[in-house]
Amino acid sequence: MRSIQVEAVVLKLLDYREADVIATLFTREQGKLRGIAPGARKSRKRFGGSLDLFARLTLTIRLRDGLSGIQEAAIVTLSHHIREELARVALAGYACELTDILLPDGMPNLRYYRLLCALLERLDGAPHSPADRRFFEINLLNILGYRPELERCSVCAAPFDGTRPLTFHPSAHLLTCRGCAGSGRPVTPTIAPLLRSCLSTGRFGAIGFTDDQLADAGLFLDNLIARHTGKELKSLRFLREMG
To answer: What is the reported pTM?
Structure first.
């Protein structure tokens, strides 16, 4: 066993025994891992209240198979402003649960780590915007290798240029030209170029969505996310209640 220092986002916490805490962490250096912090609910010296949901920390960890040992923690940022608005709490919780489900243990992914940190920084410093969720989701799918076809129709290869009417096919998880559609749901022609634009910038808030675009992006991305999670997320129910 060896002790190392990592930077991590706290995804999930579970009280254990009288004073211990089990934390699910997404680390920059080691990927996702789970660790136990002995006496964390009592020890102000070693942990100082740093083990909190959505916190970004530097940690000293003793790596072990299964459950690592968290020895010390120092705060990078607690993202405490997220808790000022329930909708921001809901989106942060959703992003952390997606990370826990979709990311394998022990596999670092620096691009994804930066995306998650950028979302939490955005939620900590700005009011809730439904566009932030869709920006996060399409970038998540891209980074994890699940990017949908957004350039051209998979049937006739015509480019999605923002003028040609489109159809979304939930069972096939794809977009086509309206003329190539046997069945499906019409969506705004600009949805494919808009999502491509979300992939060309790393800055939350840089891309604006109309109400129609948000609705169609939601239809498309909710379908793709559900395909890869394979189940309904607990946080998704809360997110829907928040609108």
So the answer is: 0.94
Contact 85, 239 (CB under 8 A): no
Q: Which residues are 159's β-sheet partners?
A: 152
Residue 10 token pair: 């706290």
Count of C-beta atoms within a 10 Å radius of residue 150 = 20
Fold of 81-241: de novo design (two linked rop proteins) (1.20.1440)
CB atoms within 10 A of CB 81: 13
Residues of the chain with pLDDT under 50: none
Three-state SS sequence of 191-213: HHHHHHHHHHCCCCCCCCCCHHH
pLDDT in tens, 97-118: 999 999 999 999 999 999 999 9
Domain boundaries, the chain: 2-78, 81-241
What are the backbone angles phi and psi of residue 226, rounded to the nearest 5°?
-60, -35
Looking at domain 2-78, what is its CATH homologous superfamily? Nucleic acid-binding proteins (2.40.50.140)
Helix locations, the chain, DSSP H: 86-102, 110-125, 130-143, 191-200, 211-229, 234-241
Please, which residues bridge with residue 70 across strands? Answer: 61
93 touches 128 (CB < 8 A) = no
Amino acid at 6: V
Contacts of 88 (CB under 8 A, 6+ apart): 81, 82, 123, 127, 128
